Amino acid sequence: MKKVTIIDYGMSNLLSITRAMEQVGAEVVLTEQPEIICEADYLILPGVGTFPDGMRELNKRNIPEAIHTFLKTGKPFMGICLGMQMMFESGEEIEKTNGLGIIPGEVVALPPVQQNGEVNTIPHMCWSEVNYKRDTKQTPFESIDNHSYLYFVHSFYANPSKEEDCFATSSFGDINFCSVVNHKNAWGMQFHPEKSGEIGLKILLGFLKL
Amino acid sequence: MEAKRLIARLDVKGNRLIKGIHLEGWRFLGDPNEFCLKYYQDGIDEIIYVDAVASLYGRDSIKDIIRKTTENVFVPITVGGGIRTLGDATEILRCGADKVAVNSAAVLRPELISEIANRFGKQCMVVSIQAKRKGDTWIVAYDSAREYTEMEVAEWACKAVELGAGEILLTSVDQEGTQKGYDNALIQAVAGIVNVPVIACGGFGQISHFTEAIEAGADAIAIAHALHYQKISVADIKQEAIHKEIPVRPL
């Protein structure tokens, strides 16, 4: 049985992601201890809440160093929602805060108004299409059709500096934003695979096959 | 493309699914988890649980229901009913709910909205508004529409959003349980002035009610009765939506 370590830093609905990973056959370990995080086989950073709160809670527990140590092993890492956002260099939610710096780029607010003056509904809270920018072979998305609908809940989005780090985009109003980021063994998903029905579960299963 | 959401609303009393009429009077329908799982398998986009008697009897049953739901239902779950404090919200979210819906407690103490939004983010904070028609406007009701305020619904919706509401669950007390359609003028009045998603609730009876509510500006519609009594299926509504070129998550 594949063992998945989920980082518990007091910021999210761990039950949903735990249940979803168990549903696809994983054994789940919840931990806030850096030494266990370093030793993980598969590592997930979930997250609901604000960027500054999230980083503060991670820093308090010395988790950022542990994540960087883990990433050097080449084993698969996945950030979900705020977990994805914190993979970047900085976030502008509430106050400018440094992130984990795994992926170059920053996290910015979704635009409240479109170019034509139309007002956007924020948070972006709905099922949206995910459109691939890269080949899905040997990725968690290998068995997922392009343009599949997945569940999003967010008010900020990540803007990778390097185009090649953007694995897939989704649209919001009149912009396209990066909804899946990937650099080497690090994956970030703005949507919630654990809340995206059977397709979401398939992505988690795909992650376990990495 | 952003999909319009179809939400199953399940009112529970103790450990049983109930269906009320005009938010008063109940009928027992069965095990909420069984209903919920079926809707999930049928392709529902979201679930809303409302604990009808939480304020009177405590919340242990609803917590058990949420925990059980998260075992095999992998779409977002909102829970409302009897949430009065940040502590109540924390407990409900810990059981696996994704969002909490607050009604009476927010009417009586609006700061609660900010407290929950600041701690868990706006996306967790659904403000549930019970709207009662009065002349050519709507006033805010609470406590299962047993109590009324002097406040206008549109005004309260704006204030709730300002305080941190990430979504409005808008229930028409007049249409609830009638199956005669949503109060589309109400949806228009609220969706037209807030920039957060509005869920239309109360009155679904036939497929055309879905398209009308979406056209009025709803981002999502909640259905109870028609689903619970199998008068309509999730597939029926999604097919109609696709036919009318309303974006929905395909089955």
Write the layout of secondary structure elements.
The complex is a heterodimer of chains A (210) and B (251).
Chain A: E1 3-7, H1 14-23, E2 27-31, H2 34-38, E3 42-45, H3 51-60, H4 63-72, E4 77-80, H5 82-85, E5 88-91, E6 97-98, E7 103-109, E8 124-132, E9 148-154, E10 156-160, E11 166-172, E12 175-183, E13 186-189, H6 197-208
Parallel strand pairs in A: 1-2, 1-3, 3-4, 4-13, 5-7
Antiparallel strand pairs in A: 5-6, 7-10, 8-9, 8-11, 11-12, 12-13
Chain B: E1 5-13, E2 16-21, E3 24-30, H1 32-42, E4 46-51, H2 54-57, H3 60-72, E5 77-80, H4 86-94, E6 99-102, H5 104-108, H6 111-120, E7 125-134, E8 137-142, E9 147-152, H7 153-163, E10 167-172, H8 184-191, E11 198-201, H9 207-215, E12 220-223, H10 225-228, H11 234-243
Helix pairs in contact in B: 1-3
Provide a short characterization of the protein structure:
The complex is a heterodimer of chains A (210) and B (251). Chain A has 210 residues and is of the alpha/beta class. Chain A has helices at residues 14-23, 34-38, 51-60, 63-72, 82-85, 197-208, and strands spanning 3-7, 27-31, 42-45, 77-80, 88-91, 97-98, 103-109, 124-132, 148-154, 156-160, 166-172, 175-183, 186-189.
Q: What does it look like?
A:
The complex is a heterodimer of chains A (210) and B (251). Chain A starts with a strand and ends with a helix. A 9-stranded mixed β-sheet of chain A has the order 2-1-3-4-13-12-11-8-9, with helices on both faces. With 210 residues, chain A is α/β, with parallel strands linked by helices. Chain B is an alpha/beta fold and 251 residues long. Chain B has a single domain, classed as Aldolase class I (TIM Barrel). The radius of gyration of chain B is 16 Å and the shape is globular. The two termini of chain B are 15 Å apart. Classes of the chains: A alpha/beta (210), B alpha/beta (251). At the A-B interface, helix 1, strand 8, strand 9 and helix 6 of A face helix 3 of B.
